[in-house]
Structure formats: C-alpha cells, structure tokens
Amino acid sequence: MMHLYSPSSLLFATLAWGCIRDHAFHRPRSLVKRQSTPLVPLTTDEAILANSFDNNTLNDWNYYYTHGAHLAGTNRTMAQWTADRWSENGFQARLDEYQTFLNYPVSHSLSLTYPNGSVFKASLEEAVLAEDETTSYPNRIPTFNGYSFTGNATAEYVYVGRGQVADFEALVSLNVPLEGKIALAKYGGPFRGLKVKNAALYKMIGCVLFTDPGDDGNITVANGYAAYPDGPARNPTSVQRGSVQFLSTYPGDPTTPGYPSKQDSPRADISSVVPSIPSLPISYVEAIPLLRALDGFGTPGSQVNRTNWVGALNVSYSTGPAPGAMLSMSNVMRDAITPIWDAVGIINGTTQDEVLVLGNHRDAWIVGGAADPNSGSAIMVELSKAFGKLLATGWKPRRTIVLCSWDAEEYGLVGSTEWVEEHINWLTESTIAYLNIDVGVSGKSPGISSTPEIRTIATNIMKKVLWPTMPNETLYDAWFAESDGEVGTLGSGSDYTSFLHNGISSIDMGADQGVDDPVYHYHSSNYDSYHWMSTYGDPGYQYHKAMGQYLSLLAYHLATDEVIPYDLPAYTIALQSYYDELLATINSTSKTLDTSELAAAISQFATSANEVMALMDQAVSTNDAALKTVVNHKFRDFQRGFTSAGGLPDREFFKHVVNAPGIDTGYAPTTFPGITEAVEAGNFELAAEWVGRTSLGIRRAADILKT
Ligand SMILES: *[C@@H]1O[C@H](CO)[C@@H](O)[C@H](O)[C@H]1NC(C)=O
Ligand SMILES: *[C@@H]1O[C@H](CO)[C@@H](O)[C@H](O)[C@H]1NC(C)=O
Ligand SMILES: *[C@@H]1O[C@H](CO)[C@@H](O)[C@H](O)[C@H]1NC(C)=O
Ligand SMILES: *[C@@H]1O[C@H](CO)[C@@H](O)[C@H](O)[C@H]1NC(C)=O
Ligand SMILES: *[C@@H]1O[C@H](CO)[C@@H](O)[C@H](O)[C@H]1NC(C)=O
Ligand SMILES: *[C@@H]1O[C@H](CO)[C@@H](O)[C@H](O)[C@H]1NC(C)=O
Ligand SMILES: *[C@@H]1O[C@H](CO)[C@@H](O)[C@H](O)[C@H]1NC(C)=O
Ligand SMILES: *[C@@H]1O[C@H](CO)[C@@H](O)[C@H](O)[C@H]1NC(C)=O
Ligand SMILES: *[C@@H]1O[C@H](CO)[C@@H](O)[C@H](O)[C@H]1NC(C)=O
Ligand SMILES: *[C@@H]1O[C@H](CO)[C@@H](O)[C@H](O)[C@H]1NC(C)=O
Ligand SMILES: [Zn+2]
C-alpha cells in the first residue's frame, strides 16, 4: 500500500524509506496537538557522541560527496576517501570489490509526431542553472534508467496511470488497445521497474515515465511558489532517474543470483529480472505535450476510476490512444561487467560473536546526491568521528561495530547484496542488527521503518535528541506528530533488504520531505545538489546533526548494552495485527482458508517471547553474565527462524515469511506475503501451502526464543 498525500488521510501504517522509493506524505503537523516530551538527559558516553556532531563538518562532508561524479562503479577515489576518514577515526577500514553487471547510457531520443505531421522533440535534459554550479558539470550523465533495455519503439501511445497491474486491468476493461503501443506512466506508487515490467506484460513495446507535480505536496508553482532555484517548488525540467530492475523479484547483480560477483563467477540469464522493452524518464514540462495530445481520446482520466490516475497538470489524463499521434523512442545502453567498491570499517567488540552493522550507500545518479544518499554518507563520516572520540576515552564496544558504504545501490541494492552473499555465514552467525541510513535528510519529517523487536529502543532513543524545527522539540515529538507513533513495516527500496531476508533485525531511518517542505528533487542529478540542500533542504545542516546524533545513540545502545535492548512482545503484537489484516483480506474474497495453524504458531511465539523477557529480567536481576549471553544469542538469532522456510513463491531471494515488498509494489510491504499474495491471486491451494510454511517459520523463531 503506497499512498499519496490527501487531507483526509489519517494514518499511514507503513512507510518505505530509502532511496529507490516513493515518498508518502503525512498529515499536516498543525492537526496534531500533544504535550511535548521532555528531553531525556544523556549519560557521559552519550554526551560525548552527541556533542561530537558538528553541522560545519557535516556540511564539509556533504560538499565533498556532491562535487564529483559517483554513478555506480565510477569513483573508486570516493570509496577510498570514505575508508580513509573512518580509518582516521579508529576504524579498521578496507574496500571490498565486486565485479558486477551494470549498464551505462550511450544515447537516447524521444519525439512525438502529431497527426498533422508536426513534431515535438523532447530535450531529455535538465536545465543548467547559473545559481547551482554542479548542474553544468561537463561530465554530468544523461537522464536514463539503470538496467534499461537497449532498443527503439515507434507507435501510438496510451496513458497507463501509475502502471500497476490494476491500472492495466482498468484499461483492458475500457477496451483501450495496449498491444503494440507505448506506455506513458506516471511516477509514484509502485517501484518504477514494475511499471515497465507490467507494460511489457500487456504486450506494450516501450515505456515513458514522467514526474507529476501532483505528488509534490503544497509547495507547487500552482500554489504560487517559485520553482527551484528561485523558490522551493519543483524545477519543471527535473527528471527522476532510477533503476528499472524488477526489485520485488530479485535485487542485487542480476547475473549472479545467490552468490557474490567475482571475476570468474558464472553469469546467469537476466531476462526475467530486467525489462525487455526500452524505457525513458522525462520531466513534467516535457510530459505536458504528450498528455495533451491524448486529451479528447479514449476515456478521460476522471472516468477511469483508479486512485491517483489524475495528476496536477492542466490536462485531462485521458487514456488515448490518439489516432495518428506517434511516439518514437530510442534508448541505447552499454553493458559492462565492472568493479564496484564497498568501503567497510570495523571496531572489534570485546564479544566478537555479536556484531552490529551500519550501512549507507554512496553511489548517486551522478554529481549530486546531496540527499540521496550523501546526507547519510556525511552522517556516517561524522558518526565515525564521534565513536573515535569515545574510543579515545578508553571505551570499547561490547559488540563489534561494522560501518559499510555501499556502491551500486541505485541499480538494485547491488553492493550490499553481493557483500551479504559473500559474508553470509559470518553474518548469520553473528549479526544482531543492521541499521540503514540512505536519504538521511531530504526534509524535516522524520520516519523509521523496522522489524518490530527494535521499535521500543528506537523510539525511546528519539527522546534524547532535539529536533531543530521548534525550540526544545524532541525528535520523538516531531516523529510522533508525523506518524501518530507508528513505525513502518519494511518493504524494500534500500540496502536493508538482503539483511532482512537473511533473518537479521533491521531498521531504516531518515527525515523526509513533509507536505509543506521544499520539494526534494528525488533522483534528479541536477537538483538533488549541494546548492539545493544548503539553500532549501537543510540550510545550516542542523537536521543532519540531529539524525546523526540519533543514529549514533541507537548504535551505541545496540553495541554496548549488556542485554540487547529488544522488545519481543512487540513482535507478537505485530504478528497479531498482520494476522487480523490477513483475515480481512481473506474475508474480502468469496472463499475460505483455514488459518488455525498460523494462529497456533503466533500463540506459540507469544509464549516464547514472554518467556525470554522473563529470562532477561532474571539475568539482569541476578547479574548473571552467562545467562545474559544466552538471552543475547536468542535475541541475535530468532529472526533466522522466519527465513527458514524457503524463498517466497517465484522469488527465491525473498525469504522472510512475515514481511516482504509487495510483488506489484516493490517499495511497500506485504505482510505474510506467501499467504496474502496467493489469496489476492485467487490461488487458495498455494495459500494453504503457505499457511503451513509461514507457520513453520514462526514456530522456528519461537523455538529459538524458547527458554
Ligand atoms: C497544505 O495542504 C493541506 C491540505 O490541503 C492544508 O490543510 C494545509 O493547510 C496546507 N498547508 C499550507 C501551509 O498551505
Ligand atoms: C570522485 O569524487 C570526488 C569527490 O566528489 C571528485 O573530486 C572526483 O573528481 C571524482 N572522481 C571522478 C573520476 O569523477
Ligand atoms: C499540429 O498539431 C499540433 C497539436 O495540435 C499543433 O500544436 C500544431 O500547431 C499543428 N501544426 C500545424 C502545422 O498545423
Ligand atoms: C466511474 O464511476 C462513475 C461513478 O462512480 C460512473 O458513472 C462511471 O461510469 C465509471 N466509469 C467507468 C469507466 O467505469
Ligand atoms: C488549461 O488548458 C486550457 C487549454 O487546454 C486553457 O484554456 C486553460 O487556460 C488552462 N488553464 C490554466 C490554469 O493554465
Ligand atoms: C533507433 O533510433 C535511433 C534514433 O532515432 C537511430 O539512430 C537508430 O538507427 C535506430 N536503430 C534501429 C535499430 O532502428
Ligand atoms: C579484529 O579482530 C579480527 C579477528 O576477529 C582481527 O583479524 C583483526 O585484526 C582485529 N582488528 C583489530 C583492529 O584489532
Ligand atoms: C527550553 O528548555 C529549557 C530547559 O528546560 C528552558 O530553560 C527554556 O526556557 C526552553 N525554551 C523554550 C523556548 O521553551
Ligand atoms: C552551523 O550552525 C551555526 C548556528 O548554530 C551557523 O551559524 C552556521 O552557519 C552553520 N554552518 C553551516 C555550514 O551551515
Ligand atoms: C468479514 O466480513 C463481514 C461482512 O463484511 C464482517 O461482518 C466481518 O466482521 C468480517 N470479518 C473479519 C474477520 O474481518
Ligand atoms: Zn538512496
């Protein structure tokens, strides 16, 4: 379930943070009235960490990352620079290299020939701005889709809304011809690769993707705001680049499923996980003539009866096709097996069989990336400095801390997936949690998504950090106002995916664009720039500081507390709510499904969760070190049980039986995915099988927790 902001929306239960994601607006903050939570005082160690964060150095790091091209696999210097900073601050740092399949843009074109023979030729360029120095860098890379198909297409075209299967089904029921046509799809909602996948499924021969200002919240030109760089509204020429891999089927290097990409690795056929038709992303200013040429043809948007079909441009969003209006597109890519570099920095813990991993990707769709991902990268450098100060006092973490700077996330979580595949045995033996920060700051609206056991500590730590919006406001207050206290469920869209689907507790965090914040030009290589960040996104770098303090304090507790601060009954509550949702989904069909085995498994989990908390209390009250270790290992390992039942149907990579990205959403999660998606597809035989497999996974997790 992805959602667009609407004033009547009350609660968004799930948010998908991360860079290849859609953003979801929350309700305006003014609607929320609550008492402020007092700032919880910091311990000495916490104060050393928090006080180390300096907005000026955060600005310096963000400046560095945003003044050189760093498309995946193109900037080893930047990887080494990151490792060197971590190394200076006391981490043992190295680069891990993989030989991955990527493709790079060579040439492209798009033109519309009207029935009268006149031609509109799209520039496919973002405007160069005098105010923003990196927009004119000579090595800036064209607007394109990563992993896109090399090919040409010339045909009439159809507007397909957000490009979900349900959108195409609506067109089929309206008798709009699809076969042999080109799809014009609006960004937003599902992951872009799935729009292209679905277009091909309906026998269309190309796909053009456009950004619509209807997804920008209040800060639009139509509402009287000037466009960037003169004001906070979207620059009309901004283009959302991005990968078109089929993220919900397989992330990572598509040529090496399940194993790391090395020089001599066998290479698999990739046709089932990347598109077989060409695609191009365009700006809204270049989408207007394409949409307008469809006005009056097919069914007007207002009568298609699909949510989010109509955007904010002055057109009718008619389906078309317009007879004789022809699009002609060409997309040429260069395939490469090419090195990528993950930087890795380690501080050994005193207990090395317990490991905490923190990660942020480094690659961007070229020079900029001020928010995505290098707000997070700047925070990670500053965090290493903060831990360096703590090390200087003689402090040692109980658990090993590992920092990772991933390459090639943008193409499909490639750097993290290959690294997890290489280190899988060590990771599943030792990792207690993975903390992800991708877009650390693109606005003022903080959010987290996580596995349930980590939510109590993650929200409590928010009470220790001041949020810059109002004097004395805590991060907790700001987050609560935006989310109503709901932590999101993880779908996909950033580097936690490989960790989660190998049964590792995970959290993703970031401050996103709120409905009244300056428009963040997601995946625009020209305008997700240092100039935008320092003028509109986070002038003063105070939000970077607050997010960095938060991540550091959370990492500190997970690495240092004698007992890992997990809340297992919170997992039970989540399972019960997912169970209720499943019953409602089943209930909305005309069939029945016996879910008693699942109910019994959840109840068994509840018992084990309560037992392990009692054991934890006993370990603490008796100060029994051996018992604490027993509890810590149960906390570390229980999630592995959820992934023990084999991969999900037709997508072996995704192994977690409790949550996964929806097969037709890519970003947004589905809970009990094996069962829910089979029910939604009307395959009750498969659903029954997955009641069994899901229950098995939950029982395995319960067995690990059992005392
Ligand atoms: C933003 O839009 C919402 C919904 O239309 C409205 O309630 C709110 O007042 C707007 N805020 C501003 C600052 O315009
Ligand atoms: C790599 O990034 C750095 C820092 O932004 C930049 O100075 C350098 O020119 C980039 N290297 C290449 C090859 O683009
Ligand atoms: C052809 O049609 C387009 C779109 O309606 C219009 O903008 C253009 O002026 C027309 N050209 C000629 C030569 O009539
Ligand atoms: C859409 O819904 C409206 C009213 O709810 C109805 O009049 C119209 O026929 C519907 N259109 C289609 C294409 O189903
Ligand atoms: C919308 O477009 C129509 C022509 O299609 C034009 O008459 C009208 O003035 C436009 N409205 C705005 C607000 O630009
Ligand atoms: C594809 O289109 C481009 C640009 O119009 C053209 O140069 C190229 O020859 C075309 N390729 C094929 C195979 O038709
Ligand atoms: C950390 O421990 C590993 C073995 O677990 C060892 O190889 C490495 O040298 C240690 N690093 C430091 C800085 O002590
Ligand atoms: C913020 O909190 C401090 C300490 O409690 C207090 O002295 C100060 O008056 C508060 N400032 C505002 C603007 O509320
Ligand atoms: C850092 O914050 C101070 C105010 O606290 C401000 O004066 C300074 O300009 C900020 N630095 C940057 C680089 O934004
Ligand atoms: C199933 O649907 C019926 C009718 O819509 C409703 O009364 C009942 O409460 C639903 N049960 C569940 C478990 O959602
Ligand atoms: Zn990102």
User: What is the CATH architecture assignment of the domain at 104-334?
Assistant: 3-Layer(bba) Sandwich
SSE-based structural type? alpha/beta
Oligomer: single chain
How much is the average pLDDT? 94
Bound molecules: 2-acetamido-2-deoxy-beta-D-glucopyranose, zinc ion
Gap from first CA to last CA: 37 Å
**CATH topology type of the domain at 104-334:** Glucose Oxidase, domain 1
| Computed CA radius of gyration, to the nearest angstrom | 24 Å
Segments where pLDDT lies below 50 for 5+ residues?
1-18, 26-33
Task: Describe this entry's structure for a reader.
This protein has helices at residues 44-52, 55-65, 76-88, 165-173, 192-201, 284-292, 374-392, 409-412, 414-422, 424-430, 455-461, 475-483, 496-500, 530-537, 542-560, 568-587, 596-621, 625-637, 673-680, 684-705; strands at residues 92-113, 119-121, 145-146, 151-159, 182-186, 206-210, 242-243, 279-282, 326-347, 351-361, 399-406, 431-441, 445-450, 506-512, 659-661, 669-671. By secondary structure, it is an alpha/beta fold. Among the domains are: 104-334, Glucose Oxidase, domain 1; 568-705, Transcription Elongation Factor S-II, Chain A, CATH 1.20.930.40. Helix 7 (374-392) links the parallel strand 10 (351-361) and strand 11 (399-406). Helix 7 packs across helix 15 (542-560), helix 16 (568-587) runs antiparallel to helix 17 and helix 19 (673-680) runs antiparallel to helix 20. The protein is globular, with a radius of gyration of 24 Å. The chain starts with 43 loop residues before the first helix and ends with a helix. The model is unreliable at 1-18 and 26-33 (pLDDT under 50).
